[in-house]
Every structure is written in structure tokens, then in C-alpha cells.
Amino acid sequence: MNIHGQRNLEHSRPKVFGVGFLKTGTGSLGLALQQAGLRANKVEATGQFLKNWARRDFQPIIDFCKTGEAFQNFPFSLPFTYQALDSAYPNSKFILTMRTSTDEWYEAFIRLHTDVIVKGRLPAALYLQTFPFLEEGWIWDVQSLALSVEERSP
Length: 154
Hints:
Layout: E1 16-18, H1 26-35, H2 43-46, H3 50-54, H4 59-64, E2 70-72, H5 81-88, E3 93-95, H6 102-117, H7 125-130, E4 132-133, E5 135-136, H8 138-146
Parallel strand pairs: 1-2, 1-3
Antiparallel strand pairs: 4-5
């Protein structure tokens, strides 16, 4: 057990990482991995690593991966994470999920914002900067750090 009370699975079978970006079937992939008997992560547990990723400090992410067998979504889908995980966990498997087009992905991404975050309309930057998912402003941080989204001047 580690300090968080989680089993250390460092020496078990090879890890499986879903490296597709959100809204590409990552939730379904996580469910499939769990149904296959793998211990999979939840974004609530891994969202905390966004700032580590932004600093390219992969060690906390690598250490977290000792607690499970399958991982997807943040921060596993972000650039440069694949290389760090491949180096830390040789023989791991990486599954890339994708939408059929960027337009289809964009529509799903916008739907997430309009249906889940702000029921019926696209939220303004200020709303995303204060929305309390995982922690206040986390959704904005994802967009600004991972997607290079910047707030537009009025």
C-alpha cells in the first residue's frame, strides 16, 4: 500500500494507457478496460496532475500509475505524457481514440460545454475560469494549458 492507501501495482502486468483526447470515447474506453478486469482511473483522481503536466513534471504522474493498471483521459492524453510513460513503463500498451473528423470532435466538445456546464448556451471565459469542476477554474486551465485557448478581448 502507498501513502494514499492504494495498492502498489508497479510489478503487475503491463499498463494500458488511453491517449485519446476528451470527447473521443475515453469514458467508454475506461469502462471497457474496467470490464476487462483492469483497475482503471477516474478523471477525478488524475485531474490534479494538470499543473504537473504543464511544468513537464511527469514524476507525480508516473508515481500515480503505480496504483492501477489502466489509465485514460487527463493527463494521459496530453502531449509529451506518452513519452514519459513509455519510458517509465516499458511494454505498456497505448490506445489512441479519435473522432472521425475535427468538426465532429469540436461539436462534441461544444456540446459538453453547452449541455453539461452551462445548460443551453456556450459559457464565457469568465464562467469557465470560475466553474468548480475538480477545483475552481480547472476547465479553463485545461483549455488554456492543453489547447492554448486564450481569452478574447471584447
